[in-house]
Amino acid sequence: MKIVLPGGTGQVGTILDRALSAAGHEVVVLTRRPRRPQDVAWDGAALGPWAEAVDGADVVVNLAGRSVSCRYTPENLRAMMDSRVDSTRVVGEAIAAARRPPKVWLQMSTATVYAHRFDAANDEATGVIGGTEGGVPDYWAYSVEIAKNWERTQAEAPTPDTRKVALRAAMVMSPDRGGVFDVLLRLARLGLGGPVAGGGQYVSWIHDEDFVRAVEFLIAREDVAGAVNLAAPGPLPQREFMRVLRRTWGVPVGLPATRWMAEAGAFALRSDTELLLKSRRVVPGRLRDAGFAFAWPGWEGAAGDLVRRARAARAGPGRLRARVGGG
Questions:
Q1: For the chain, which end, N or C, has fewer CB atoms within 10 Å of the first or last residue's CB respectively?
Q2: Is 61 exposed, middle or buried (0-12, 13-18, 19+ CB in 10 A)?
Q3: How far is it, in rounded angstroms, from Cα 7 to Cα 50?
Q4: At residue 192, does pLDDT exceed 90?
Q5: What is the pLDDT at residue 322?
Q6: Is 103 helix (H, G, I), strand (E, B) or coil?
């Protein structure tokens, strides 16, 4: 198959590009900084010669958007919104204009669309969309609006011959350098991987191999459209999540952090505490109903595999580096 990855240079794009290319597919990456023969230049905002790559493709997986690994200032939040909505709009325009449109358009979304909650898990049928819950910073609602506008832009695109799926993805865990697992592992190795603000907030995640397998599954399942949660069936509280990671690496303790300590740490890392403090208790209702079988359903097994691969990468040459965002 010919698969086009707009914004395919970030962490998730690197994972998909690597796996799909290894499986024998023709993968074209749309990027602002083309470096390889399979890379095509685009700006993520306007139609251009890059649209020729979409015409005749079998699949488009749009991953474009400003990285969430930043301070959530008004300027950065607006850039997150604009980059996601604009790129989704223009991908829709390219598909609509294609003489031979792709059969399926998988559009990256986020599990952040769901409410901050502890009482029950969020699946696609009964999950609570966030933005109105109390006791959280006001700007968290803007993150939900980004996700809603992202999905709405895809849903409203006039592409009647192309099936559309919105990927409400949890954190994708891979040993690539610079990815979210790499950051969490570094904290654990430094003895800083303890409970944050009590550690009761849920962490939703998905192993990188299951993420790729889920994408392949959704490409093949012509009966699945709309929003789909891409998350392992075993979300768990942050304190337990980090306890398992510490134990797997061999670190006996992890210093706890209060909310204000988390704020200071996030500021130093030029990131935001929403990534640590929001309870994302998300489960894969539609994937499971459709018969998808997770290779890594539990965090203990997944952490063991990821740590093994991280150790191997550190011991060998050619270590992979991946950015969290793609463009």
A1: N
A2: buried
A3: 12
A4: no
A5: 44
A6: coil
